[in-house]
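Board work, copied verbatim: Type I restriction enzyme R protein N-terminal domain-containing protein
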Amino acid sequence: MEALNLPEFAYKVKQVTGKPYIFDIIRRKFVSLTPEEWVRQHFIHLLITHYGYPKSLFAVETGMVYNTLAKRTDIMILSSNSLPFLLVECKAPFITVNDATFAQISRYNFTLQPQFLAVTNGMSHYCFKAVNGQVHFMDDFPAYRENNL
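↓ predict structure ↓
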């Protein structure tokens, strides 16, 4: 896998029938190592090690319904009362973060209504709040503070 614009971490990879799998510390199992999963695992570790989020607040690849369509969120941080706090959409490094990416997470925002949204392809990262239809980009991701969740 290629180097990302995210901190390195100690990951575990194994081969299963000739295909690479990476250990997901949130789901506590090995999952297929795709380019998007590579980004997701790096971002999970970033949120834990640099922003202080406890693993217990993560939901990874959680199902949701949007306009009767089944969708999956990549990373969701839940508040202490189990409401969405931060929703992260991960793309493979070769996928450009563009208007379509922002439109996708905006659709999830409509249903889940987290306080913060983020998109990343492992190279570029954006965090923002959507308030009353207005998008407010942030300089950094929100750090975990127990009283804010």
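The mean pLDDT is 87.
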